[in-house]
Write a sequence for this structure.
């Protein structure tokens, strides 16, 4: 039997929030960009709660409304509705290599 250090550590999963921002001019989508939130969530419920709270904050600010276009969550109207910004929230699963995290932590402890 090998020692505990010989055990291969399986990757762990975490959830990441992606935001798709799309610009619409005169009824046509002209620009799209995806942003990955830097924070990872261990539970799906936590990631979904983050999305919900972020949407609520944007709606409370008065600048965003619930989007009427399928696939988007929020919309911000600009220039008499000729230039709108749409936001879609998505939760993605990301595998994290636990062995690399442990190795990075070990190297930090010896500094």
């Amino acid at each position: 039997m090998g020692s505990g250090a010989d055990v291969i550590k399986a990757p762990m999963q975490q959830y990441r929030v992606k935001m798709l921002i799309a610009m619409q001019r005169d009824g046509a989508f002209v620009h799209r960009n995806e942003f990955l939130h830097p924070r990872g969530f261990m539970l799906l419920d936590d990631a979904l709660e983050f999305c919900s709270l972020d949407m609520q904050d944007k709606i409370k600010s008065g600048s965003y409304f619930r989007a009427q276009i399928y696939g988007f969550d929020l919309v911000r109207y600009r220039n008499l509705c000729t230039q709108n910004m749409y936001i879609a929230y998505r939760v993605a699963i990301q595998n994290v290599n636990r062995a690399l995290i442990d190795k990075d932590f070990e190297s930090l402890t010896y500094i």
Notes: The domain at 15-107 is CATH 3.10.50 (Chitinase A; domain 3).
